[in-house]
Amino acid sequence: RNGFSVLNVRGSAEAEDGTTTEDALQHSSAPYSVKIPFGDRHILVETGHIGRQASGAVTVTDGETIIYTTVCLAEDPCEPSDFFPLTVNYQERFSAAGRTSGGYFKREGKTKDHEVLVCRLIDRPLRPTMPKGFYHETQILSWVLSYDGLHSPDSLAITAAGIAIALSEIPNSKAVAGVRVGLIDDRYVINPTTKEMENSKLDMLLAGTDSSTLMIEGYCDFLPEDKLLKAVEAGQNAVQAICKEVESLVKICGKSKMLEAIKLPPPELYMHVEEIAGDELNEALQIKKKIPRRKALSNLETKVLAILTQEGFVSKNDTVTEVLPDLGEEEEDEEIVVDGEVDEGDVHIKPVQMRPTPLLFSEGDVKLVYKEISSIYLRRRIVEAGKRSDGRNPEELRLISSNCGFLPRAHGSALFTRGETQSLAVVTLGDRQMAQRLDNLIDEEEFKRFYLQ
Question: Where does this protein have coiled-coil stretches (predicted)?
Fold first, then answer.
């Protein structure tokens, strides 16, 4: 296939122990190297070399920039919720550029603001691809092991995380990749180098799957809308090409997906919750004040749970199980056998009456379904009736007020009020000597002069 190659690190069809390449393909821990088109060049994806105990582990190389990403997940699922338990950690190690920290402490410090932003770039496109009902806690760790100063690691980290997830047991829907799009001399460049970006009018990070765009972030220098849309199209085409190659790699050395771990609430539970809470839920959502509305919804949730528990629908051990029906006691045969007579051939079998036992639901599933139904009712009220919970129509704004100079001894302060939401902002001014010096991968001085707390 053009632009795609799989290399076995042994470099021979038969290994020393007599196993062939086809035999090695059956083992997910076997080392493989893949070259994938990445803009105007190729990236090298390696798996099975290091991190073999992880659910998925890859090293992605662009030039001399290397990203190492692992994916691990808990053996046991956590409590059901509407939020996928995903944690992302990204770190740029000083050793990647042959440097040490300029401060007194030479160990790697806490996560920097820039690294937190890259963590969010990784999280955003991956989270929508995770299946509903998968509750195993998942952790993505990404390190910059080598940095050449030319090839940016942020877009590479998104692609590395997408490949690691695709190779793991996590049953995500599609492969994810990320690219940077630049506009240099009216030409769209995919993953430009840092030197090329100095002349670019556009700096856009785009991530998605082969069929949809999931995340766009960046800035531009007064770029017209039509050019920005063309940049999105160029980025999506590059992402689509990468995702197709990743899917080919998954067919070769990807692990079996944990489809059996997806646990969705039974459809019957939605019917029971809606029957109990339907009318009262509509009334609670029409309460204008936030705190009384919140209490009413909470009390209604407690009521729904209590009724389902009283009727025997809620399991005590908080697990979704299907209980076998209780067998009624078999009635005694009232037929009288005369002395001396032996009934050797006839067997009298009477039908046994079975008492139906309802399907048991977990308490977590009841709360999850109640929250989902509440969202459906609220959305329906806004769309059909044109009213939000506080009585405003979709276009109506809350009353806004502000009070400057709220704190007399602060350099600057303001109290901002919008409806029932308030924010107190305080500013402190200082000179350049008070700025914080930051370490980074490139050998340039960087000072942080603005803090938002």
Answer: none
